[in-house]
Amino acid sequence: MQTIRTAKAMRAWSAAHHCEGVTIGLVPTMGALHAGHRALIRAARLSCDAVVVSLFVNPTQFGPTEDFSRYPRKLKADAALCAKEGVDLLFAPPVSEVYPDGFQTTVSVTKLARRWEGEFRPGHFEGVATIVTKLCSLVRPQIAFFGQKDFQQSVLVRRLVEDLNLGTRVVVCPTVRDDDGLALSSRNQSLTPTQRRAVPVLYAALRAGQAAVRAGIRSATRIRRLMRDKIATEPLARVEYLSVCDPRTLEPLSRITRDAVLLGAIRLGHVRLIDNLLVRRDH
Ligand code: PAF
What we know:
By secondary structure, this protein is an alpha/beta fold. Helices cover 38% and strands 19% of the residues.
């Protein structure tokens, strides 16, 4: 497995592989890889000739009071996982290579970034949109792989690649969960044992919402209330949002008359967790 750290070398690698007609799959990550990333790499392996994993803790998607400096960095273990999974190339640039002195151009996806995560993490999606645009222009993947766990991010990235004609197909892979339902996330490593015992309540709340839809409840207010009641059973958890939305526009629905997505975010002390479940009216 090769490792590249500069934009120039990344461009050269990509140009050479495009010349040879190789299909490049990109798995963009911020490192601290887990089984969720492994699933993305495996999906990429199945449909692409060459798999690139980017490891870059992107400073521009963290707010001033967020955990950029504390975000787990495990380059050695990440490289070992990638090598074991048959990744062809690790793209692990330093910040100065991605955001050189004088950098001042950003990308914003306006409407899709406004609600939910956008409200609680101002500027976050501008950072995500900017880095994804940069990665796509450097790596030039035919396909890029994202996890459903970050549902709003995946909808926004689909919009972005289409709006900016990046020529990349976006594949969204199902969320990988621990046995108790907790969606895997690099940030789970910062949970204390007490918080770890409490966090499955978010998935339980989403499941309660999904069960209500399956039982024929159509009112979003009722479904939201059910989910809130479930979270209220866990004294450590504070709800940031629980919503019933259109999975394409992310606008809130008042009734479920078609497919919907249940989105949730909770906070336990300093730790924030997000999760989601897709629901179908005919379920
Ligand atoms: O989902 C993530 O890990 C990040 O937001 C991404 C897409 C790698 C951009 O930094």
